[in-house]
Amino acid sequence: xxxxxxxxxxxxxFLASCSKKDDNVTPTPPGSGTEVGFMQxxxxxxxxxxxxYEIFVRSFADGNGDGIGDFKxxxxxxxxxxxxxxxxxxxxxxxxxxxxxxxxxxDYKLTNPQFGTMADFEALLSKAKSLNIKVIIDFVxxxxxxxxxxxxxxxxxxxxxxxxxxxxxxxxxIQEWISSGKVPTVTTYNSREWYNNGDGYSYYxxxxxxxxxxxxxxxxxxxxxxxAAKFWLDKGVAGFRLDAVKHAWxxxxxxxxxxxxxxxxxxxxxxxxxxxxxxxxxxxxxxVAPYFTSxxxxxxxxAYWKLxxxxxxxxxxxxxxxxxxxxxNIYNSSSSSYTNATKLSNHxxxxxxxxxxxxxxxxxxxxxxxxxxxxxxxxxxGEEIGMKGIKATGDENVREPFLxxxxxxxxxxTWRTPxxxxxxxxxxxxxxxxxxxxxxxxxxxxxxxxxxxxALASGSxxxxxxxxxxxxxxVYYTRQKDSEKLMVMHNFGSSTKTVSLAPIVKALNLSGVxxxxxxxxxxxxxxxxxxxxxxxxGYSSIVVEMN
Length: 547
Ligand SMILES: [Ca+2]
Known about the structure:
Elements: H1 2-25, E1 34-35, E2 52-55, H2 57-60, H3 71-84, E3 88-91, H4 118-130, E4 134-139, H5 149-156, E5 168-170, H6 174-179, E6 194-196, E7 201-204, H7 219-235, E8 239-242, H8 255-271, E9 276-279, H9 285-288, E10 297-299, H10 301-312, H11 320-334, E11 339-341, H12 352-355, H13 360-370, E12 378-380, H14 429-433, H15 439-452, H16 454-458, E13 460-462, E14 474-481, E15 484-491, E16 497-500, H17 501-507, E17 513-520, E18 524-528, E19 531-536, E20 541-546
Parallel strand pairs: 2-3, 2-12, 3-4, 4-8, 8-9, 9-10, 10-11
Antiparallel strand pairs: 1-18, 5-7, 6-7, 13-14, 14-15, 15-20, 16-19, 17-20, 18-19
Helix pairs in contact: 3-4, 7-8, 10-11, 13-15
The site of calcium ion (CA) has 6 residues, from loops.
């Protein structure tokens, strides 16, 4: 062992002497020319980026000091979201519910009193409208709470008018009932999905016995759902985030399931022509794609899975743009128009920073990728300050109180003592705002870029011949709208890369550099003679306007 250490020391000494000698013989090593300055066009205030922000209501901001996040807290923090350049907010379920998360509703037309009154909610909508921020609410109709009056009636008697609003079958012959088509929407028997009601019957629940599935094939149920949705549209919400879309029918590929959502969307569109909906189909692209014939926007889970895979192991990172495009190609095969709702983590997944080995540089690249790729990006609250959390020990761990500031933090929610994100593990927002090297600084800068440059907001994506790119850890692509062309480069790896631009410009079918626009992580462009070189430190990104 000692001999090995000695050998390594000798090699190090030898290398050090070599590099010194090289400095003398090479006047301009790569990246040592004149640095080309950055010039970012100033933002005109128009929110072209179409960026949404997901708020876990209980944890975001407490406006009345009882420790629970609420409508008033959100209302007070809308100026912050507006200054970030957010176009819309998604509120996790805000209807009454016995659970902390609210994904089991007891009344679809009331507000959760813990979050505030209807007047408080209306005040939120009014302030949001004044800031040009759309509000969408979580609409959870695959199931209700077992405490919903509909289910309380249904479970109490086989002759209840609400019995057929849910999915009951005789406990001794569930399988036979399913096989003979007597359980609408259910096609396969799975014992875990049935709960014994104690009266000779069991009821179907895809997730939990306290979340009985609604019978969405029952026209009375459909009428009640449509009625509730119209109620909120009348209040002024822009639309809905649709929960558990692929579970409406047990078979996620059932044509009846597609038809159900299509009918719902069309009914709401007839009522409010500009209604917006984004659906959760938690699956790979081929399962997601057919739902675009029913729902205009769907979350792109696959692109996020690929992104974290490549950031955690950059060996094949250069293929990321193609893998992203492959998802869009699958979407294209189902529908000619769709909204690709991109995202990093959400309330059901490990926090992005935790997924990325708690390495801030990786989280910064993830943000820079999300905000420079095509789509309609969704940011989960707290991602912009690098909150942490692992789901395996409880969903609450990825839904912890937002950290507004150190010291007295009057808006911080206290409904739960955080296990992952507190002042000693995550720098709160107010302190990150003063730090140009923070995760927040990257979100702020790249949100502004997306809002400023139409090419980033809605331009086409191209990535040239990836095979010819010599470095597997570098990710390149261009975004173009009209004559505006931006080249985006990221270093997914941890070591500094210095590359000559000419072959990349050629591979991307561009003609030359116009102007470096922005960077994160210390990336820079240098010019030596007529040769442009880009230096990308580990986990850095750069955006360059091209000819
Ligand atoms: Ca409160």
